[in-house]
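Run: sequence + uridine-5'-diphosphate-xylopyranose -> complex structure.
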Amino acid sequence: MTSTGAPKLTVIGTGYLGATHAICMAVLGFEVLGVDVDEAKISKLAAGEVPFFEPGLPELLTKALESGRLRFGTSFEEAAAFGDVHFLCVGTPQMPGSDACDLTYLDAAVRGLAPHLERRALVVGKSTVPVGTAARLTTLVQELAPAGTDVELAWNPEFLREGYAVDDTLRPDRLVFGVASEWADQQLTAAFKPILDQGTPVIRTDLATAELVKVAANSFLATKISYINAMAEVCEAVGADIKDLADSLALDDRIGGKFLKPGLGFGGGCLPKDIRAFAHRAEEIGVGQAVSFLREVDDINRRRRARTVDLVRELLGGQISGRRIAAWGAAFKPNSDDIRDAPALDVARTMHGLGGHVRVYDPAALDNARRAYPELRYGESALDAAEDADVVVLLTEWSEFREIDPDALAQVVRHKRIVDGRHALDADQWRAAGWEYRALGRS
Ligand code: UDX
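>> structure
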């Protein structure tokens, strides 16, 4: 503890979630040590460089480092000696060849830290995990720690969205404290004091509920997106208009317009793997039927990618092979350079596989895309990628694409054809400028 009584914090795992959490907690006034096994990542952060794209975070990193309250290192021993509250923020990706969640990194973090915990401390899981993990890790931590049952475990799921990570961390909608004792609750309350003082609602609950809150939230969001995309499939069959349908539903307060945007569907490092891991875990514990609809949610989502390729093919008169295609967008969503399970790149790669000459452009994710898929071609700007294109396909709704003037684009393409995979453009404006405009779920 510091002289003010505030706990000293460590953050184990300095990826997207961990780096943001460590930086924001230091900005809020805590002494924080960020720990990772990846030395390159740690050196970058220690030098003031955020290793991924997140608006506002680089400025806060500079501020936190200048305050002297934020340090980075690679030693679990140092972390154990320093911290009162240890946040576990390592990744829990999809296991290769399975829908299950891969807990290798989380287990390794616990096994790295616990043997050094010689005094009373709270270990707090923030990673998204299958329900039951916290109970298992409690036993593991207490077996491995010299301090034994003086070390407790809590679960505090994180709901931050990429692109809004700073705001979501500093001003969250809610906090969830999964705790097994009054003491653990007091530690978490102290560790989040500045955020609680803003009046942020907090739900205090058991470990299993806290684990479930996160997967239940992401499953709900994925379901809402797939619901509207399923309606788009129906609209396509009858010549109805998904945009008008979605706008009409959104005006019902009980439904609301958030996560009701039809289009190419969801991707990223969370929603797809979380719904799969949840369905998998539910089957393991004998309640598979309760969430079997998540398999359908996943299938609807995948079909949107295939349908986008079909739309491009239709607009090209039935043939993708040999055609020049500008693919606008690579990131799984705007304001991010994250290409994990990115619908945009999935579509681009499928069109490339069908013999299309695909040129990709993205305002932030080009380097990541180039590294992952060197077989694709890349443009230096939206207009550069569209040079001589037979069709332009908008796959990620960056504002840069929304703002492009149809007449300016007409100057560089070979044919004025556009597929709007994200309902990002004004169809009337593009049609008035002489473009053949197509979008999923619209006649
Ligand atoms: C998500 C959750 O929102 C966040 O709370 C959790 O902590 C992590 O997972 P994130 O992966 O950053 O966050 O992205 P999000 O903004 O939720 O978008 C996910 C995907 O859904 C994107 O591919 C986006 O393009 C797509 N989406 C979103 C839609 O297709 N339609 C919508 O209406 C909303």
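>> summary
The radius of gyration is 24 Å. The pocket of uridine-5'-diphosphate-xylopyranose is lined by residues 158-162, 218, 221, 225, 259-261, 263, 265-268, 270-271, 332-333 (CB under 6 Å).
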